[in-house]
Amino acid sequence: MPNKKSAERRVKIAERNRLYNKHWTSMCKTAVKRVLQAVEAGDQTAARKSFDTAQSVIDKAVVKGVMHKNTAARRKELMARNLKRLGA
To answer: Which label site among 1, 30, 58, 82 has the fewest CB atoms less than 10 Å from its CB?
Structure first.
């Protein structure tokens, strides 16, 4: 346990931020999984719709500082590559 008042406040803030980051990280992972599942199922329309949603969620996570921009680019590229392979 912290000994000082300011340290107690920092513990509370760190926990709040951890939960916030966990929420957005989870949303991003779920969105990517939905795209990959639609690609595996061969459903191109669902995959395209999921892809657009996933891109939006990932971009919002970057703006909020939860995810690094290069990580976001890598995840979006992975989804796009799978989606392109589905179309071919």
So the answer is: 1
Find out whether 72 and 61 touch, Cβ atoms under 8 Å: yes
Sorting pLDDT into bands at 50, 70 and 90, what band is 88? low
Closest CA to 56 of 35, 38, 40, 39: 35
Question: In whole angstroms, what is the distance from residue 26 CA to residue 12 CA?
Answer: 21
pLDDT in tens, 1-24: 889 999 999 999 999 999 999 999
| Spatial separation of the C-alpha atoms in residues 88 and 79, rounded to whole Å | 14
What does CATH list as the number for 5-87? 1.20.58.110
pTM score: 0.87
Kind plus residue range of the DSSP H or E element containing 53: helix 44-63
Average pLDDT along the chain = 95
